[in-house]
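Q: What would this complex look like in 3D?
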Amino acid sequence: MATTAHGSADATGSDPARLEVRNLVVTYGATVAVDGIDLAVLADEVVVLLGPSGCGKSSVLRAIAGLEPYGGRVLLDGEDVGGLRPDQRRIGLMFQDHALFPHRDVAGNVGFGPRMLGWERERIEARVHEILALVGLGGLERRHVDELSGGQRQRVALARALAPGPRLLMLDEPLGSIDRVLRDQLLQDLPDVFAQAGTAVLYVTHDHDEARALSDRVAVMNEGRIEQIDTVDALWSNPTTDFVARFLGV
Amino acid sequence: MSAISVRHRRGVHDPPRGPRLAIAAVPVVFLAVLFVYPVVSITGMGLLGLGAGTRITTFAEIVGDAGIWGIVWFTVWQAVASTVLTVVLGIPGAYVLSRLRFPGRRVVRAVATVPFVMPTVVVAAAFTGLLGSRGPLRDVLDAVGVPGGRLTGTIWAVLIAHAFFNYAVVLRTVGGLWEHLDPRLEEAARTLGARGLTVFREVTWPLLRPAVASAAAIVFLFTFTSFGVVLLLGAPRLATIEVEIFRSTTQLLDLRTAAVLSLLQLAGVLAALGAYARLRRRRTGRQRLTSTRIVQRPPRTPAQWWMLAGNLAVMAVLLGVPLLALVERSLATDAGYSLQWYRSLTDDGGRGGILFVSPLTAVLTSLRYAVVATMIAVVVGGCAAVTVTAGRNRWLDTLLMLPLGTSAVTVGFGFLVALDSPPLDLRNSLLLVPLAQALVAVPFVVRLLVPVVEAIDPRLREAAAVLGARPGRVFREVDLPIVGRGLLAAAGFAFAVSLGEFGATVFLAQPSRPTVPVAIYRLLGQPGAASLGRAMAMSTVLMILTTAAILTIERLRVRGVGEF
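A: Here is my prediction, written as structure tokens for the whole assembly.
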């Protein structure tokens, strides 16, 4: 096993972090969206990437997923995935506004990843069943995605990202577009789902409440850079930069 | 499929019932007299022999003739082959123009649309110039073993010309959806382990399929009813039903057979339209349309660069080369390049001339007819659009589309059969040709205007009313300014269609008053370099006039307008 790299201060023991990002840079033409960030997520950890809209959070996720070209390195379990296409990285990504396949029913959406892995039909069905039960949508397999409520769509998107058993689950503003009551309900359920899925989680949001409720650690991001990474308590009690203090309202 | 339309709620500010009925009456009467009545006359002649003269062939004899079924078979299979070729060429082109952002994209898109509105005779002239026995490819074709070094007169010329014509249909219909397809759906598939072709097969294709199906249906319809291209490029061996109706009527004077063929044609068109309507109703899930700003990205991967380069090359060869060849041929004389053929356009060719008039006179005739036809088409189409939009008139919508599918030749033949004897004798009326051209143009006008009228937010009218505008004033202050640009675009389209109309006009134009397309047709039928050169020069003039009209429309185009 490779030794933990410099910059992943929280990676303990001799195991490499599940995800490690070193000096990540993403540019769109002349615009620098992500300006050299370092980040690590442990195998059983939930890290929340918190920041105002337009600060480059989504670009970080897209780069890690392999959807954007980037500079720097992305390592999964110590292995550099720079040469791998998105379909080879085995990272789950839950998109902003879900991006559910409109031409497939719930089971068709959730079973898509396992099908790509070449699983047999019985195994796919069992997996779909299991994951839908986990997110609280048991029995909705044959429902068309048009007929789902906002909260249900959310859960289907989550289930779809989890179904192939990703090494890392990334969520991009997953609670962005739904109303308060539903949001609070999902916020309660999510830690349980993360724990049962047993995967590392990188969670992007601009919302303090979500960061407080879900995270083991929070990375505050601004203008393409990470300002501070810490636990919730440490962050709120001891912000190290003016921006963090102002953004957190302390 | 393109625009998300706001269907009107019937409100207090809609025009009262009286004017509404008057507005609805315009397209209804127009269609009843100029379309339904002629079709009924054709039916009577075909089935019962009414007015067919003294020939005593029966319906059964005509239908029992194996020759007829050979023509029907050829018509169907060349349409299928043309459709497949066009769709296969068009889908990658649609991808490039809808998903990749590159400098000049809008210009390429506008230019690629031009062939669709090119008059059939211009296209036929261009391909005669390119692939004919005097063409620049003669030696190349000869070298690869094509007899006589020419493709004209073979199915290949017909198929290539059909692809040239209808490429833009696929580009517009499929690209119109593709450029709004949420790219995150494909990205989601990729993060879930799908790669390259699997993403296309599993996500992109199922979502595009309705657009591909309707593009294919439209192309099939257009090529099934193809007339000018087959008449000019397929002669003398190849004939579609359209061409055979024309030959039966004008050369064999066998109106009964022509009428029976028209009925077969009508049946085929109705079947195709029915299939098209069914395809449009069947949908694969509601899709969220996404802004093109998100969808379109600069080419990044080598594959994307190859797609871009490859498709631009296809467009240049398929769309650009024939039109360039037309211009080149119009300048080529035995003594090198000169404007000789253009100078000869003022020459009427003397008493024995094939045109009776100078080509320049034909241009003036064409322009005059087209202006009148445009006015008729805009008034009738405008009234129809308002009526269709006001709801409960889906049948009118369908009826209005029929002349488009029925084909120009049937329109021309129908006029000939129905409108040359009392109670309606328009044989010598100068309105006959413009009326036929307007009938051909009306479906386009309606298609262009309906989305524009539908897109007017009813609250705007309500706001105007609340602010004190009376009903007539509301129309003037709200509807008209918003619809104005669409109206101009529709007028431009109607003008271009009328200017290039061939199928109906060739039946109806008086021999001494040929329009430009008719004149070109006659010149192409003459032997000798002089006739060919003049045909090429006239075609170039017509091409420039049409392009000018279309580029004006492109500038006036309102977002989400038009389905072709």
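A: To summarize the key features: Residues 175 and 183 of chain A are 6 Å apart (CA to CA). DSSP finds ten helices and ten strands in chain A.
Q: Very helpful, thank you.
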